[in-house]
Specification:
Blueprint lengths: L12 E6 L2 H31 L9 H25 L4 E5 L2 E6 L2 E6 L3 E8 L3 H6 L3 E7 L4 E5 L5 H14 L7
Antiparallel strand pairs: 1-2, 2-3, 3-4, 5-6, 6-7
Length: 175
């Protein structure tokens, strides 16, 4: 006879929501390409513009191009780092709680172990590209927090379900 696991104690499994690291990686590479191109074009233009600072005429274009390139590099680097560190992250939604698997660890969280859930949706194009179309922060009673982003499969469903279970006391129905 198998011994029950901690996940068995929080009820039947409703669904699994992994981190879409391939989508995050593709978006990171896109941002990095834009960043490299913007910086490669904007930096010489900005240097040339600064060298001619005494002449008449002002154009914000070189600085804007350089700033856009640097910002895209920062976004791309962040997304690339997250895509690697969260590659095997999985949320398993159960009727009585949530199991968070990351790297080689798993945390079993019953709904009463969660102090607060901050959940926001922003379904605009740029937000989807950066994975910020879903921003869900799960604050734990024991301290710490877990983030659910738009890069998790079916993040809208997962985030809203966790928010309803903790905030409204409406746990998900068993399949």
């Amino acid at each position: 006879m198998a011994h029950p696991s901690a996940a068995d104690e929080i009820g039947p499994l409703i669904g699994e929501y992994g981190y879409d690291w391939e989508r995050a990686r593709r978006n990171a590479v896109g941002w990095l390409v834009v960043g490299v191109l913007g910086t490669a074009v904007g930096l010489p233009l900005t240097i040339g513009y600064i060298a001619d600072a005494g002449s008449s005429g002002f154009s914000p274009a070189p600085g804007f191009l350089l700033g856009t390139g640097l910002a895209a590099l920062a976004v791309g680097g962040t997304l690339l780092t997250l895509s690697v560190t969260r590659r095997r992250e999985v949320f398993r939604l159960h009727q009585g709680g949530l199991v968070h698997h990351r790297a080689n660890t798993a945390r079993v969280l019953a709904w009463q172990d969660i102090a607060q859930v901050d959940y926001q949706e922003n379904d605009r194009g740029p937000a989807r590209l950066m994975g910020t179309d879903v921003h869900c922060v799960v604050r734990l009673r024991a301290g710490g927090r877990i983030r659910i982003s738009g890069y998790h499969y079916r993040a809208h469903h997962l985030g809203s379900t966790v928010w309803r279970a903790v905030t409204k006391g409406e746990p998900p129905a068993a399949p």
